[in-house]
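Pilot study result, target chain (324 residues):
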Amino acid sequence: MRAWIVERLDGIAALERRDVPDARAPGPGEARVGMIAAGLNYPDLLMLSGGYQYRPQLPFTPGMEGVGRILAVGEGVSGDLLGHRMLVGGRTGLLADEVTLPLASLRDVPDALSDSEAAGFTTGALTAWVALAVRGRLQPGEHVLVLGAGGGMGLAAVSMARALGARVTAAASSAEKLEAARAAGAGDLVLLDREKPDLSSVKGQVDVLFDPVGGAAVMPGLQSLRWGGRYLIIGFVAGPPVRVGLNQALIRGIEIIGVRAGEAGRQEPELGRRAMHEIDRLAREGKFRPVIGLEVPFERAPDAFRAMEEGRLTGKAVVRMAEG
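Predicted structure:
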């Protein structure tokens, strides 16, 4: 079978497509899955150079979310699952034709989602739900500002905030990305200069700030929050973390909150189960679906990583292995 392999931490240049042995036969409680497609996320890109908090042992295969069909099952797993279309999750390993995983790593695909949408669904939806509903304690009618609103994570936050009944302002670096945010549910749009972002139009008006970007937008973002606002730190797409004085939180009466949705589920398994239930429910009800901005065949996976690295991707990138 085919797989993308990383043997050195050298960024996208380290990706090597190889023919490797077939996925092993499933053991007790496991299933072997034929991958249909995998969704790419910014942590996948960071792992190629060792820049993410989780560093897999070399060599590894990237890919943390996708969709596939069950090909074989191990002892204790019902044979009725053979052929079922499933959401697939893991910290790495999914940019391959087949994977063998514990059944707990698989979920039924909400029928409303296409294969491409299913491949890019879980990470964005999970992060957005944990960030907004749990860590941010978002209430219906509150005002959410989403930075980087044209990226896969930002668009997921726009859609999730709307599904949770919030008013949404989307901030992004191009008209194309802002239009995608409008289509996802944003009511107000702010075009940002990446070097000198100006958020004065929402100064002191925001209840919850969702920030997967960081960088130059951090201080203007802080100024956008009203008294008692919540700043959700999702990631640092714009570069290394910006240092912020604790006096900012004191003076403005705000909360600065770190969000790690996957780790939250590992630390609090019941929260993890509830989060998966809620995002799947929203997808089934047609209230949430990811925006897929790029789909490439397996052989062109590096092109999808480059689009993400260069900031020219609107929505999620998906790598297709097979037809559903």
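One observation from the pilot: The chain has a mean pLDDT of 95. A full batch analysis is planned for the follow-on phase.
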